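Why do we bother with holo predictions? Because pocket geometry can differ from the apo form. Keep that in mind while you read this record for S-adenosylmethionine.
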Amino acid sequence: MRLLGGWHALVLSDRASWHDLDAALEHPELPRLAARPIQTNEVGRSWTLLPCFLELARRTGAETFDLSELGSSAGFNLLWDRYRHTYEAGTWGSADALLELDGVERTAVPAELLELEPRVRHRVGIDLDPVDVTSEEGALRLRSFIWPGQEGRLERLDRAIEAVRREPPRLLCGDLVELLPGLLAERDPDVLTVVFQTAVLGYLHDDGWDRVQGSLATAGRDGSLAFVWTARPAEDVHGYWGLWLELWPGNGPELLAHADFHGAWLEWLV
Ligand SMILES: C[S@@+](CC[C@H](N)C(=O)[O-])C[C@H]1O[C@@H](n2cnc3c(N)ncnc32)[C@H](O)[C@@H]1O
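The structure, written out:
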């Protein structure tokens, strides 16, 4: 996959063609490009996250959020409130947004949720390997790890890159397991802190997830904290994931929705 990502980077920047493998393999830049770790950031997930954040606003009455994303990559999903989202019951977000997202609703998102407009005050992401898409190199890296031919995804990615370039979120470089307690300790008790992660759990080292849950539970004792995350909806379910919510003070984790890994469909459950 690294090799194909490197070759794709050469094709996308007009330095090689899919029709000439020999020339691509001999390109002096290929060894460097093929050595890059695979890195992705799927902005379609914002379309499935938005109803979860609106549900949080409904339950807490919070009008303002401070957002922290774990494993944020380039930070595309930290900007979910900058995109326009379309559901069967209506649209949410600015009409002149750079990026419009939609998908298939297997059960519809309730219209009442779409009337809520929580404001994001601060946003911060943590990633072991944050991608700076304000640079051409960073943007090319993410573009090269989209499968060739998936033009719709590539176009969506390019719009997300433009959105980040317009308003780059703060991205911290480091291990989320180590950095999360410090971030939580700094939070403002008067504003709801919303921590979220998509597609990151599988990368954590053995006790990483336990430590993340421990940090959240400790911070949650002071209240005003929510966590939204993707994980299996049940032990024996594969092929799609659940969107989970935990709110402090509250009653433990709750499954809000089933969703496609890249945000193509959503089944709202509550
Ligand atoms: C599959 S990508 C998902 C990126 C983004 N959350 C999304 O949904 O598009 C996984 C991300 O998690 C990051 N990651 C994995 N383990 C991490 C850790 N221990 N601390 C911080 N980031 C981590 C990777 O660098 C990568 O950016």
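The radius of gyration is 19 Å.
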